[in-house]
Amino acid sequence: MGKHINVFKHLDYRKIIKESLIFFHREDKKYTITNMAKFIRVQNPYVSKILNGDASFNQDQMYLVCRYFSFDSDQRNFLSLLLEYDRSTLIERKKKILEEINTLRNKYRDSSRHIAAKKISTDTNALEKYYSNPLIQIIHICLTIEKYCKNPQDLSNKLRISEGYLNTILESLEEMNLIRKNEKGYQVLERNIHLPKGASILKVHQNLVRMKSIEHYNSFSSKEDYFFNVTFSTDEETKIAIHEEFLIFLKKVEELVKKSNPTGVYQLNFDLLSWLDT
After folding, report:
1. pLDDT tens for the 278 residues of the chain, in order
2. Domains of the chain
3. Of 44, 54, 100, 181, which is least surrounded by CB within 10 A?
């Protein structure tokens, strides 16, 4: 049951427990402060005192809290670290614990955990070739549209590239086993692929795609295109909450795309970065 709630969005374990009680109570009315107190073998008023910030759990009690909500191992480790962070008074130790906390949070916020796209192995030569040229990825996705997989040469005019260059890219996609030529044109063998977070080419790929997007925007964008950017100030908790909302949105986008009948290829970019070192 614990997998249905995101415990990684707060640095205060009390907020997580409060939200968990509310969430699980909606699912099953047995989830209450009274029943949780009974399960972790403490008095009900003491739990209320902890959740109000006037006391703290010990590690045994936190272990039982995690069992009460059926949290998985990552969630249990995260709550345990938050408890250590809350109770520690040594600045050096708190800093070390916070690094471990952020490692777990970053693991959860990896977009690959929220979408079903297949990762291309970092051990293949195809990785660098595919992601070092945005046009290869664009043409690959264009071929998921019926009229282009039947008549790929139409992409030459659409993308303003020579037929020779288009054929070179099509041959590359065949070598990568992403498409296959047949009597009707091309068949896409792999559609949803994802660059692993630790790949050395990740930043290069992201920069190249942004530059290609800017080039397209300056030269060919239509009135139907939508662009938005904003610079704002906030705190770390809110920044993380925004990141979490995007991951939810990303999952929804993937579901919508899977249900659609493709007629066009679109680009969606999202950046959430800090202008200041913190």
Report:
1. 444 678 888 889 999 999 999 999 998 999 999 999 999 999 999 999 999 999 999 999 999 999 999 999 999 999 999 999 999 999 999 999 999 998 888 777 665 554 455 555 434 577 788 888 999 999 999 999 999 999 999 999 989 899 999 999 999 999 888 999 998 899 999 887 777 666 778 888 888 888 888 888 777 766 777 777 888 898 887 888 888 888 888 888 888 988 888 889 988 888 888 877 65
2. 2-109 (1.10.260), 118-259 (no CATH)
3. 54
